[in-house]
Amino acid sequence: MTTVRGAAEIGGGLWHWLMQDTMDGLRRRRAILGYVFLLPTLLGIFIFTAGPVFVSFGLSLFRWNIFKPPDYIELANYERLLRDARIAISFGNTLKFTVLAVATQVSIGLILALAVHRITNTAMRYYFRTTFFLPLLMSGAAVAVVMGYIFHKEFGPLNYYLGLLGVQQIPWKTSADWVMVTIVITSAWRNLGFTFILFIGGLSNISQEVLDAADVDGAQGFRRLWSVTIPLLSPQILFATVTGVIGAVQVFEEPFIMTRGGPGNASRTAVMVMYEHAFKDIEYGYGSAIAVVLFLVIMAFTATQMWMSRRWVFYQ
User: Fold this and answer.
1) Alpha helix (H) ranges present in 84-151?
2) What is the dihedral of CA 195, 118, 203, 216, to 10 degrees?
3) Which end of the chain is more exposed for a tag (fewer CB within 10 A), N or C?
4) 3-state SS, residue 169
5) What are the Cα distances from residue 77, in Å, to 217, 227, 280, 292?
6) Are 94 and 82 contacting, i.e. CB atoms less than 8 angstroms apart?
7) Pick from 237, 241, 257, 259: which is nearest to 249 by CA?
């Protein structure tokens, strides 16, 4: 009996070891397979995103016009950047555009989402969702070309219909007072669908029990919106704001195609100045320095937003 029991224990231990080895091998193969599938995406990020960022940091320390070997000049490009008046103007325009564009997209997107969410007819709800989202699928260059014609002072249909209402022609693209408003309207019209869909998803996830409890407590109308709905939408508002700021700081197509940065420098943005120095003046080192500063500005904005979000973002 002792011999049989010992053999059974040895056999059970061997079987357990074999099964354990098989499970570990299965996990290992699954992990390797997962990394194999991730490899193309990781290579794309390192080659086309992270790689150019590190190259820009290094290139910003050189003077290079592609016709001569790079000349190491330490921080001279950054010193020149601090003295460049156009840089200050372009970053100021970018800041103005960012504030106006993000505020417009978030506020109007939220209003439209609240209105569509209240529609009970399913077909109409899907119609409005599709209609508001469609501009986001269009090319930014194509939108800028079409909107440039719409906002034309003499021949644009917008001024024509405003003239029928007795409104004088508005110099949408030729006045320093109006040009930034024109670009903000164009950008907001194209990107509004993103924030709209984002808020529609957030409203759909709000528990009806919470809203019913707010009604019982007497919170209705604007009071319920301000005290219940918006706090529960705060994660979506944070995401829309962060992504909106990142996109707005890098605005290029609308001002470049519609106004070429004019009139004067009224709509010239930081990315436009970077493009002009790097690809028109062939000053790759100086253009890289502008890109590095722009990258640091985006990082600073994002970090500030994430730090401030701890005070006003509520997760269910």
Assistant:
1) 85-117, 122-133, 140-150
2) 150
3) N
4) coil
5) 61, 50, 17, 11
6) no
7) 241
The domain made up of 76-312 has a fold known as MetI-like fold (1.10.3720)
For residues 244 and 111, what is the distance between their CA atoms, to the nearest angstrom? 17
If pLDDT is split at 50, 70 and 90, which confidence band does 22 have?
low
Q: From CA 303, how far away is CA 316, in angstroms rounded?
A: 23
DSSP 41-96: HHHHHIIIIIHHHHHHHHHTTEE--SSS--EE-TTHHHHHHHH-HHHHHHHHHHHH
User: Would you give the DSSP letter of residue 170?
Assistant: P
pLDDT exceeds cutoff 70 at 23: no
pTM of the model: 0.84
Distance CA 238, CA 308 (A): 10
Alpha-carbon torsion (84, 85, 86, 91), positive or negative:
positive
**212 within 8 A of 228, measured Cβ to Cβ:** no
Separation of alpha carbons 231 and 110, rounded Å:
13
Tokens representing 100 are 């106006």
CA torsion, points 11, 15, 17, 19, in degrees to nearest 10? 180
Residue 68 region by backbone torsions, left for phi larger than 0, else alpha for psi between -120 and 50, else beta? beta
Report the distance separating Cα 222 and Cα 293, nearest Å: 42
The closest alpha carbon to 84, from 245, 287, 234, belongs to 287
pLDDT of res. 14? 47
Q: Long-range pairs for 237-240 at CB < 8 Å and ≥24 separation?
A: 237/106, 237/110, 237/313, 238/305, 238/309, 238/313, 239/198, 240/105, 240/106, 240/109, 240/194, 240/195, 240/198, 240/199
